[in-house]
Every structure is written in structure tokens, then in C-alpha cells.
Amino acid sequence: MDEAADVEQELTGGNTTAVVRVGNTVHREAGPWTPTIQRLLAHVRSAGMTEVPEPLGLDSQGREVVSFLPGDVPGWPAPEWLWSERVLADAGRLLRRFHDATAGFDLSDAEWRLPATEPVEVICHNDAAPYNMVFRDGRLVGLIDVDTASPGPRILDLAYLAYRIAPLSGDAFAGASYGVGRLDPMARLDTLTRAYGLSFSRTDVFGAMVDKLRDLAAWSAARADSGGPAELREHAAMYRADAARIDGLMTPAQRPDRETNI
User: Fold this and answer.
1) In what residue span(s) does the Aminoglycoside phosphotransferase domain sit (predicted)?
2) DSSP character for 226?
């Protein structure tokens, strides 16, 4: 692969590793998990899930290489079209297709960036959210940044997607210049779950969401403490606050016993 004449273009949005575009490819720092992720991408694409990038090995600098998926990746503040019912349903269906495509993936000798979560049902993306999705003309066409994938339960991914797109996150409308009062996060959560196609209750999703946010808070704080971007501390604080607020949406009888790790 001769890319000497291609200019590296930094892609924004990541907060853990530098990501650049070189022509029609994307390059990012590799890690011990990279061979597993490359195998996973090949596996799900062979199962018909072509909305994820094609794995292309390593470049001359030892960075992971995948194909570039053209389109728009929404940043924050999110564009108003992101909150359409069509996008919401498309997101639920795409996540289900990704999970189903991971069936049969060979877990022997697999190494993951994030630990597996029991019960293991599928390979979770672990960061399924609009900022890791590609759109063209307002339609969802891609799911990217799969490097934090690991085995886990379906509901863990669905809960985080709901957190970001229902939405239930504290920063969902930060900086937005449009009105958002028309959105009903509870009804949108139900729509997303129906689109995914399994009968998870709101309580089940809220419980998984709280667990996910507490884990994210701990992970973000640890990354900041070990020299990661300083803004990860702000992320950790938001995750903690959102976890407490969402936990409060459940009655004491609905709330499962948990030990916090933050």
C-alpha cells in the first residue's frame, strides 16, 4: 500500500487515541487488542454487516488501518435532524444487526481493550452512540470506532445507546440553538427498544444504564489520572451525576442491589 503522497488529516471526536484519515483509509494507534478487533470486523462483515469498516491490517508505523466510511459523524452540539424518529429507529435496528452478526465469533486467543461483562451474549460495541455513527442525508449508514468492543450482554449496549439518543445524558443539548422540549425521552426509549426487537423493560434498561455510567465514570477518571486528556474528569463527573439521576427514576422495589465502584 503506497500512501506516501497522501496527506494525514486528523479526525476529531476521539478522546483516547489520535485518529487520522489517509486517503480512503483511517489509521489509529494499535494495541494488544488490535488483532482481535480486526478479526471481529472481518467476521461481522462476512455475516453481511457491511456498515462497519473493512479491516486492512497495520501501516508502516504499526498503526491499525481500516477503510474510511464517507458521510457525516455528528458532533456536539448535535444537529437537530439527529433527533428524528427515523434516526432513532434506524439506530436500534443497526445495533441489533451488529450484535447478531457477532454470533459465532471465535473467542479463543481473543484480547480485548475493555473487560468482558457477564452474562456474555454477544460482542458489545461498548460505545454505540451517534458520535460513532455515520450518516448520509440524515440516514444512518455506518457504525465506527469498534476498538473498545468486548463480550457482554446485549442490554449493556442498548442502554448506552438509549442514554445518548433517547436522550438521557446531561450534555445532550449543550450548545444547541434549537428547541428540544418536544422530545419525550421515555417514549423514545420505548421506540428504540422496539426497533432493537427484544422486550427489555424500562427498568432493565435503566439498571444497565446506571451500571454502564458508573463503570464509565471510573474508567474516565482512571484515564485522566494516568495522563489522559483532562476533560475526562469532566466526563466522569457527568456520568456520576447522570447515574444518580437515572437511578432515581426507578422505585426502591425496582432498583437492584449494586455496589458502586466509584
Assistant:
1) 113-174
2) T
pLDDT tens digits, residue range 80-128? 999 999 999 999 999 999 999 999 999 999 999 999 999 999 999 999 9
Q: What is the pLDDT of residues 196-229, one digit of tens each?
A: 999 999 999 999 999 999 999 999 999 999 998 9
* pTM for the whole structure: 0.91
Cell reading at 127: 460505545
State the Cα–Cα distance between residues 215 and 198, nearest whole angstrom: 24
Q: Please state, as a whole number, how many other Cβ atoms lie within 10 Å of the Cβ of residue 14.
A: 16
**Ramachandran angles phi, psi of 243, nearest 5°:** -60, -45
Angle at 12 between CA 158 and CA 93, to 5 degrees: 25
CA 132, 138, 141 angle in degrees (round to 5)?
Answer: 50
> 173, 154, 259: which is closest to 210 by C-alpha?
259
Contact between 89 and 165 under an 8 Å Cβ cutoff? The reply is no
Q: What is the DSSP letter of 136?
A: E
Nearest to 115 by CA among 227, 221, 237, 219: 219
